[in-house]
């Protein structure tokens, strides 16, 4: 009993091993076959009559018109209208293919087309590793997606991830844009593309550049984090990170941003910006600074929020809350600011006039030019559009000019309207109209004080030289007197509304942020570096060759290369498919040979039953 059990167990083990071995062998079907030991030693040569030659092996099927099958090596070459199918998700057509059943490694050449549910790959040479579930080309390929066409010199497809890695001369062509890159990882199911190395996304109205980025090729949105910028017609946006939405013509930039206006020689910096291309508008927050070139000198404007609108020929800048302006020879502050570049007008405004608190006073527009301070409800600066030099200024309502005396005290002029004129960007004349009042320190040419002059009139003209008051002219209804200094009390040495704000004056560019805490920058969400790409042609652990020694490829062909096309498709085996007589003769020989084999392997076949 034990002996029989051992025998049955050994029989089952042998049967199971035989089944596993048979499972590894390539099965085939064909209409006709023959052997030609001279041309194809050890191989079966197969041809199509009505049906294509058909191979199956562990989930893969191959059809072709002609084949050379090395059965003992589990290897075949397929010729003519080759079709390869793996499951329901992968199908491939080619002119020629080879397959090694031992290593499950395939190679196709000629006009190769591999189709997946979302993409179609076309190339002239394709390698397919079924163990890794990866396909690879290095001779240039084209992948057609539902939304785009992707081309590259080298490409690798990962079946399990449904992912392509494209290398060298990578290009995505879409009706709305073209992407060029050195390296793109593309996920077929989602249409997501990860860009590495110098990359551009060029559309009709914008060009994006980055060295690491993400782009949704179907949703037309992107995120870029390394040396990234967006170029519009006359505007460039840069930042540590950029977001781009082509559908909404929208972009945003975060941390260390720059918005450069090439048409107007101006730039806005900050740490967050939003760009609306169709509206020609940009909003910048977190320490925004607008700078422009004016008569070879830069003008800087800072506020809590800056808004730039309008076409290049009619740009307008608006700044809101705690506005600070700096130029090498002039500075100013206000609650809000408006700049019309086309008209050359800059307005300093308090949008909450009428208040009398300490905070409100600091909101009132103030302008410093040399030792002169001008305040009022609204201050306008007008530039010559041709020369870009300051032409004039206007102060409306509650105009107050304070000039710090060269030695002591303050010269003061007040009225309803102040008009100042500039020459070579220096204030040289001021007219003050309506209910004017002055307090002036009169001095000799040697700067000796004569007395303090306090005068009322309808209009006053003041002339400056080297930023100091040189002459004062009073017009209409003059009422005033000159008193020695000792006869003027300290309390009477200022006019009503006097407010010297010299401690707020900006003396250098860095004063734009004086007294302000730096903004807390958001942490940029990075894009991971690409995974290390291993050599595609690595040998199996058991030492099996990827392709059989009868392959038309040489060992040196199975190496990763910068670019390489396998030589043209070999000639289809000749003879059997063109000579019916030869085919019939070979068929008879094979039938006789089969009978002889049956007689030897099955002795019962030779017994005659009487």
From TrEMBL:
Biased composition (Basic and acidic residues): 551-564, 588-599
Sorted UniProt keywords: Signal
Pfam family, one: OstA_2
Region (Disordered): 550-610
The keyword Signal belongs to this UniProt entry's keyword annotation: yes
Signal peptide start-end: 1-19
Domain spans labelled Organic solvent tolerance-like N-terminal: 48-182
InterPro entries xrefs: OstA-like_N
Protein name in the entry: OstA-like protein
Source organism of the structure: Zunongwangia mangrovi
